[in-house]
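Quarterly update, task 2.4: iron/sulfur cluster-bound model.
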Amino acid sequence: MTCDTNALVSLVTGHWSLVTDKRVNQYPVLKYTNSDIVFQEIPGEVALAVNVSGCPCRCPGCHSPYLWRDDGQPLTTDAVDSLVDRCDGNITCVAVMGGDAHPDEVDGLMQHLRQRYPWLRTAWYSGRSLLSKAVDLRNFDYVKLGPYLAHLGNLRNPKTNQRLYRVSDGAMQDITSLFWRK
Ligand code: SF4
């Protein structure tokens, strides 16, 4: 995995108060290939999962190499509004799956969702080990961190290196173990 360590900060404290310039995501570089309503990715949530292309993480054993390509449709605020509105109130969360090439755009999208759909939770699946400085945790309810390493498995494997955090008041609580309960 390649990481720009200058753009990342440590998760040692689990507390964040970063504020960066926020842009409404009207002219995005993010693109998405498809979306789906999912029940497993965020425990307790019915999530609209939006798969973002152009992934830079290059995880060994990547399960979705088609997402490395710069494919799909622009993930504008209008596009995400359309996807959410089509769910007709049947979701509790929007999960952006990927987007590590442009975390500032993911952040802007989440900020938009916060404002337009304040009753929906927001989640981001990042393939990075550390959280980008370009995001403001106040825009997120959940963050998944960690590359996919085939020999350790995904979040449903107790050996996994990946972590899912619930975000509350700027603090990140590791809730990965929720995936392992029968
Ligand atoms: S983050 Fe996901 S899509 Fe990107 S390389 Fe890793 S497994 Fe593949």
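Highlight for this quarter: The first strand starts at residue 31 and ends at 38.
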